[in-house]
Amino acid sequence: MAGLLCAALLLLSSCGRTQTFSALAANSSHPPAGESEATAAPASSTTETGKTAEETQGEEEPLRTQEEQEGPPELECPPLGLESLRVKDAQLRASSFKRRGLGPHRGRLNIQSGVEDGDIYDGAWCARHRDKNQWLEVDARRLTRFTGVVLQGRNSIWSWDVVHSYKVQFSNDTLVWRPSMNGSQEAVYEGNQDAETPVLALFNTSTVARYIRINPQTWYQNGSDGDICLRAEVLGCALPDPKDVWQTEPTLMDDQLDFRHHNYKEMRKLMKSVNEECPDITRIYSIGKSHGGLKLYVMEISDNPGKHELGEPEFRYVAGMHGNEVLGRELLLNLMQYMCREFKRGDQRVVRLVQETRIHLLPSMNPDGYETAFKKGSELAGWALGRYSYEGIDMNHNFADLNSVMWTAMELETERSKLINHYFPIPEQYTSEDAFVASETRAVISWMQDIPFVLGANLHGGEVVVTYPFDMTRDWAPREHTPTPDDSFFRWLAAAYASTNQVMSDPDRRPCHNRDFLRNNNIINGAAWHNVPGSMNDFSYLHTNCFEITVELSCDKFPHASELPLEWRNNRESLLVFMEQVHRGIKGVIRDRESGEGIAGAVIKVEEIDHHIRSVADGDFWRLLNPGEYQLTVTAEGYLPSSRTCWVRYDQHPTVCDFHLTRIPKRRLKGVPPKGRGLPKDPQLRLRQLRLRKLRSSTKHINQRRAAARPRGV
């Protein structure tokens, strides 16, 4: 009622004081009204750094100090949505702009520029004129209690432009403007010292209005060439319309889920609560530890947790590979809650998924990076803080580059029949203790070996698009369409997610940053976007049986908690539909004709598709394929080959194609050295297994050294 009363009585009014954080000014206090000692209102900066947040779990995980346990500062009001695009281009105006690519619609927090200077995708709003009369205006479209502004400089590889200080004005009609005050004088807020660090300014007194203007006062001059350029987010609480007594906030959906950001401790607590609520279909396990000692927890959802069932495919979602791309983490936490509750309610779609699929959800592959970003919060983490591992490794470039191994072999080998096209062993140099491989990457590779995954997706943020392999270009070009032999099915997988996503399927949405993926129906070959050597998608395809894609979930890498219910609504159907794709294609069991036992390591070849897969421990296999007629041939060490024709239909169930192989009569071979204990006879599988053993051994030694180096009790 206080906000409505202010709006009704005054055109513009001050409605209460708000807390101001200061990291750039020594004195963060403000003079009372009527005094004029200070004319500058200090702002909060994110330039400070801190150690990765860690916490205790018995004696196995490192302790955290009280300071490290603290989360981001609480903001009184959420962002309006310049970064997330909830604020439309039509709501942004400016006094002037240099060109279209530097128009007011580009003045959004964390927007990224294109590579070419002067295109339509530049990295800020830049004024045409260089004077103190320039402004960027935001229309909230309703009365809003404005509480603060977050500012950044221009994102560009060619130019360096920042605003050092600025004023703020408010209006209800764009005709009469009232300045933000600091006591009795007009407030001047501190801006940026570099182009990328977001700087928060909280107003001394919040103000109710419809429009807000940011008015730069000083900026980096660069001699006489410095431009007035900025990116911004505005903080404000929308007020009810006093003319509409029946107005209520729209209900997004009836899913009663935990819509907030969860740090490491809270994530473990939520996963435990889901496991306790649905103990018969869930299991929590760890696949390893981060460099900082935080466990990489996985939630398994299955009607028989902890066991691979013959003929049942294994599926995985991985989120948080880049620690600051947090939406995937929250969506997977929401997904495990949702599936638990819907299974108990008897939702037949969820029941069928749980009974016919073994699902694995890894919500945080990079918990160290997440904790770093979480401490700054959604608006202040910037574009890259927390992206990398504790050691500064980008995990999506950290998997073994098997593409180069394959392409080099293709160039050197003249006899095509000798080439391999699947199950490539890890390169020798990648397995050593000195290899620059993150602990988290090592853990995920070992996980891939332990579980016969068929399909997966890794969830990222910062764009809205689905990418599919290959992610690496063949000749190290910056970008080049580089398809796999299974390109048609990968395009189907990507389209299955994109076409059911409410944001991606919106034909009227605007591009996030510097590329319009609507032209590609929101799917693209990864290498055609940009070259990514050492990606998890490519490694998964070439080293295992698993097909994997990348989903870029939102323009905003770290959306505010208030936007999480909407993001869940945008992605819920897509997450379910994509899991259901694991049941497309062909499945079967390869057995010994005489004993009936399953044959592991058999090669399944599909005619005219130059990529094979292998049967797993019990002889079962899954080959993802589009509808059609296929000729399959199965070979195995010590058995005669077997071929048959299999039809894949359009329904949501795989075609069953079993094989029974006949043994080759045994012969006594002379001069053949004995095989190593526990190793397969197939030379390719032997080398693959030996390299994995070496990788696991080196990982164990690294972890032991780190544990010994930590102070006792930490």
Keywords for this structure?
single chain, 714 residues, alpha+beta, eleven-stranded mixed sheet, 22% helix, elongated, zinc, protease, hydrolase, signal
Polypeptide structure, described:
It is found in: Secreted. Residues 31-50 have a biased composition (Low complexity). Belongs to the peptidase M14 family. The chain is of the alpha+beta class and 714 residues long. 22% of the residues lie in helices and 24% in strands. It has 13 helices and 29 strands. Strands 1, 2, 3, 4, 5, 6, 7, 8, 11, 12 and 13 form an 11-stranded mixed sheet that branches. An 8-stranded mixed sheet has the order 14-15-17-16-18-21-19-20, sandwiched between helices. A hairpin with a 6-residue loop joins strand 26 and strand 27 (642-648). Helix 4 crosses helix 12 and helix 9 packs antiparallel against helix 12. It is elongated, with a radius of gyration of 28 Å. The two termini are 50 Å apart. The relative contact order is 0.11. Mean pLDDT is 86; it is low at 1-60 and 668-677.
